[in-house]
Amino acid sequence: MRDIGRLVLVLSLIGVISAGTLAYVRAALDARIEHQEDLHVRGPALSRLFARPAPDLLANKLAFRAGGREYPVFYLDDGGQVDRLAVEAAGRGGYGGDVVVMIGLDLARRTLIGVEIVSHHETPGVGARIERESFRAQWTGLALDEPVALRSAGGDLDAISGATFSSRAMVDGTNQVIELLRDHADEIVELAAGGERPARAKGGS
Amino acid sequence: MTAVRALTHGFWRNLPPFRLVLGLCPALAITTAAEYGLGMGLAVTFVLVFSNALVSLLRRVIPDEVRIASFIVVIATLVVLVELAMKAYFYPLSRTLGIYVPLIVVNCIILGRAEAFASRNPVLVSAADGLGVGLGYTISLIVVGSLREILGAGTWFGRPVFGDGFEPFGFMVKAPGAFLCLGLLLGVMNAWSRRRGEIFVQT
Amino acid sequence: MDLLLLVIGAIFVNNVLLAQYLGNCPFCGVSKKLDTAAGMGLAVIFVAVLASVLTWVAHYFVLVPLDLEYLQTLVFVLLIAALVQLVEIFLKKKSQALYRSLGIYLPLITTNCAVLGIALLNIKHELDFATMLIYATSSAAGFALAIVLFAGVRERLLLSPVPPAMRGTAIALVTAGVMSLAFLGFAGMVE
Fold first, then answer.
1. Is C84 or A195 the better-scoring residue by pLDDT?
2. How far, CA to CA in Å, does B63 sit from each of A10, A40, A102, A121, B51?
3. Is the residue at B201 inside a domain?
4. How many C-beta atoms surround the C-beta of residue C152 within 10 A?
């Protein structure tokens, strides 16, 4: 009986020490990991949208909660005025899961600056063609005020042939952002202009 | 056995994955470039040194029945530490290595050294053994990685080594190239050992 | 149709062993004879599917709600180790015949990266439960297929005049390379 007690004691001690160490290290590195994720996952998309090096853009970040989802929002506030946003959304219904898109928005002209793909699991050579410049160029200059749709659903966007699911997921992500802006544009701008350190977004991509 | 001897054994007598045929999966999977070999090798070395030291330190405390379970907890903790550190400081590398970083936990070299060496030897010697085997493994991974990168992509640590006229053997960075490269290297090492008259049986 | 593609993709195109390099230690270790290879293959299918279910549930119902995803590796490997122990005890009690055929391979499976690898891939690909079940089963079946085919080749190799330096693991790896080349031919089937 003493033996079993010892087994349990030793194992639990090792477990507790290990969990403690990991929790401590994770807490210490959390901010750094999130920054690295932003820099390497979102950074390239952001810097293409705003034509600026990513490290300058990442500090202006906030996480906006709406409809049970959390949207990472990056903003540009040149001259004190928040005039451009980049909002990330997970477009549902892709062939291999969510297609995470980053939509650039010009608030003054009320148009879309463009769309960038942050991450996707679409099939290489088929669905992955959503990454192509020629396909994504269709987003540039679209009006910010009305939902977009594929031509097959009565809209103006041409889907990639053979990759309807992937194209549809991009449209879904875009419309999430457009709806978010329709309902909460003022709040977001206020949060961004307030300059207070916004609540940090949860990790993960 | 002294710490120095334990250290040097890792470089030839126990050189993984060639002499100690363990830890093949990463040796095949991530050696598409020398840089990845270096990263994976150092990650494994870190885990090996500390797991050997900790296992040796705890060898009189841990009851025999839960030996393996305790080793696994110690190793897994170290691997999670490496995962977090790699994400924080070498993010692009951690994305390239992907699931092969958490898979270090089932790399047989680590559990093998814990069971066969560290649970029977004092702390310093065990740590030295971990360092030796780990560095040996790192060198092997860099060699395999360099071969595959130079032939398969025409670069070494990302820098081009051939002129523009070089057409890379794409085959080398694909799966068959990995198996072939490792098999042939193993053959060359065996031939070398036989010439030196070392008795060495690989089953 | 999609599911069929998933199955073919997991068994042939992205074969766990020959394309994803998972589980090579048992691959070289127990592939010398056809019947041991078949035993190992079956044991891996059995454990990999159970482990996938267990780890999937643990990930989505425990780790994600508690925001402990960073402990994934630790939790998964412990679950698999515990699972293997339980299966061993259960088999010993309930089915002597099955225990005799699978039992000796079970301890080896704890450190088989194919099992942990499949469990991690399920999460990485963000599969839902049903898809995960199919993916895990076919991936493990791919492992079994490769190891059995390979054992057949190795039995023949014993009769061939292999240069002394290449005997054993060296020639086994080269053979695996040739097999992997054959499997590469499936890559065109599922893009």
1. C84
2. 8, 45, 54, 46, 17
3. no
4. 14
Annotate C10-64 with three-state secondary structure: HHHHCCCCCCCCCCHHHHHHCCCCHHHHHHHHHHHHHHHHHHHHHHHHHHHHHHC
Instruction: Choose the closest CB to B87 out of A15, A22, A36.
Output: A36
Count of other CB atoms within 10 angstroms of residue B108: 24
Indicate whether B20 pLDDT > 80: no
Residue with tokens 């040097």: B8
Spell out the residues 6+ positions from residue C93 whose beta carbon is closer than 8 angstroms to its own.
Answer: none
Distance of CA A115 to CAs A80, B47, C169, Å? 25, 42, 51
Contact state of A124 with C70 under an 8 Å Cβ cutoff? no
Across the interface, which of A22, A33, A37 has its CB nearest the CB of B77? A22
At A102, which amino acid appears? M
Domain that holds residue B74: 3-195
Query: Could you tell me where the beta strands, DSSP code E, fall in chain A?
Result: 61-66, 69-76, 84-94, 97-106, 111-119
Does the distance separating the beta carbons of A204 and C74 come in below 8 Å?
A: no
Q: C85 and C20 in contact (C-beta within 8 Å)?
A: no
Sequence letter at residue B26: P
The pLDDT tens digits of the residues spanning C134-174 come to 999 999 999 999 989 988 888 888 888 888 888 878 888 88
Return the DSSP state at A83.
Answer: -
Q: For residue B169, is it within any domain? A: yes
Give Dmax (Cα) for chain B. Answer: 63
Judge whether A164 is closer than 8 Å to chain C, CB to CB.
Answer: no
Phi, psi values for residue C163, rounded to 5°: -55, 140
Map tokens 């053997």 to a residue: B169
> Which residues partner with A84 through β-bridges?
A76, A106
ipTM of the shown complex = 0.82
Bridge partners (DSSP) listed for residue A71: A64
Count of domains in chain B?
A: 1
